[in-house]
Amino acid sequence: MINFVNFMIFSSIEFLSVIILMLTIFQFTIKYYIKEVISTSVIMSLFSYFFVIYDVGEIFVVLQIFSLIMLFKFVFKERNWMYSIVVPSVSYIIFVFLQAILIGLFIYAGYFNSMQELKDAFTVKTYTFQLIEFIFCLFICISFKIFRQQGFAFRADSKIKKMNHFIGTVIVCVILSTALLYAFNQSLTIQYFIFVFVGLIIITLILIYFSIKRNEAEYAPEVYGLKNDKKEV
User: Fold this and answer.
1) How far is CA 44 from the centre of its chain?
2) Contact, 196 vs 102, CB < 8 A?
3) pLDDT tens digit sequence for 2-61
């Protein structure tokens, strides 16, 4: 019972990181979605508990992404299936790469001997890592708001703004990749760094593409219906 309670608390905190990251990146006003954020975090944690207990193995991540998509669709009431898939999926992938950076730093610092230690979901080390993940993601989100003033709102009024979005995102990727390279210099292989770096670039391109596509969709109000009256402009 203690394991279940601890898992639910710290896993909810971890998923809170994912959802806050998602809302920040795609420019949703978090204060309007407090109930949705909390309920989705708790439900995702409950799902994850059963995924861990029943050892779903390699499809663990797929099941998590699918669950997040469905919750975003029905809890956040997103009417468009395309964005119900894109927004949670891209956000989850970004979170995984941020998580990879943290894991690398923790291994480099000697807190973890290997990534295998994180597979045990019921240890103090794992709970501590999940808490630090939340703080790290919160820092990223605050920085994102400060330096970009907005997320990928799927609207760009001019080519200059599109270029600014591109340059800003590339700078973020370079900074994260540099930190990753430093952390993995002696502890992990260069192949792992390349994998994360390429992943960040792909994420950047996906965000830019769908930002432009969403900008076009803004001219058709019936296409997009996620609480437009509450969304920042």
Assistant:
1) 14
2) no
3) 889 999 999 999 999 999 999 988 888 888 999 999 999 999 999 999 988 988 876 888
